[in-house]
Predict the 3D structure of the following.
Amino acid sequence: MKMRTTWRHTALLAGLALLTAACGGTTKTDVAQQQSSAPATAASSAAADPNASLKQGLKIAFLPKQVNNPYFTIADEGGIAAAKEFGGEGKEVGPSDASASSQVSYINTLMQQKQDAIVISANDPNAVVPALKQARAAGIKVVSYDSDTAADGRDVFVNQASPEDLGRTEVQLLAEQLGHKGKIAVLSATPNATNQNTWIEFMKDELKKPEYKDMELVKVAYGNDDDQKSFTETQGLLRSYPDLAGIISPTTVGIAAAARYLSDSPYKGKVKLTGLGTPNQLRKFVKDGTIEAFELWSPGDLGYLASYAAAALASGQITGAEGEKFKAGKLGEYTIGAKGEVLLGKPTVFNKDNIDDFDF
Ligand code: RAM
């Protein structure tokens, strides 16, 4: 990744261009918006000691939705780098598929290993909860990042961006490219993914506004964060709806597969594609005209922030209650919002003018 100052500067400029209208001016210390509609987390009864220093030698395990996903590789590298900074030890473990129950056996193993904290992106908000509850009862702190668990599965949720902004801006990005007309589809991750499902709800809500009266969401398809399945689902969408005008794929796996399919088909440049992807995976599709614009946050910063949140919990600095503050190294200070949520910040919109400024 480029130097931090470059990232911040470019992200700011790019973000301003398209996000201003949709964003309510939140900052990283504002109350985080909820990703799921789960009830509030009961913060631990132990009192937080804001002056406690971070313990040395903390063992922090990252459990992504799946390990063979470049997005999570970057996020977890960020988290492991943070652990090194605070004198801890980070590692990534996880399944190769993003199915609902694939993470449970990993949680059990991490519990046996007496990790100090588990940082998890949940494939299913509920399937992981019984195992996580056991881990928490054994004194392990749990931070969800990227995709939340039900509230009783974790202490803190580190949310990458406001889900409302993400859902609405995805629709806005596509609508601009379509002249606000035509049939559209969503190519999502797994049917149970908390993050994608929350964003899709906001997309549907955005589409209710009068300016989208000539746009119709015809289908939500699921590529399961599997490259081949996402590719086949894209093919299927175009077969079922030959007059499809656009696709939103709010998953880095989905958008890369859809772009590959479209770029090699007569639909290239005609069927518009947007969503959430990494600049390195999508650069060639922006350059060849398959994609005009897409969004993402910094995955490395997400993992880094989640790692510091885990360390602050494991050191007794915070308990996950609203209003508590902790320091996240180079990212500065964060405040825990309602329902135990911490918000990383705003995503960046990438297009042909700025994509070469990013390397991740
Ligand atoms: C995929 C995963 C992840 C999501 C990104 C945008 O890598 O589904 O959860 O946040 O896409």
User: Anything to note?
Assistant: The chain has two domains: 43-160+298-345, 163-296.
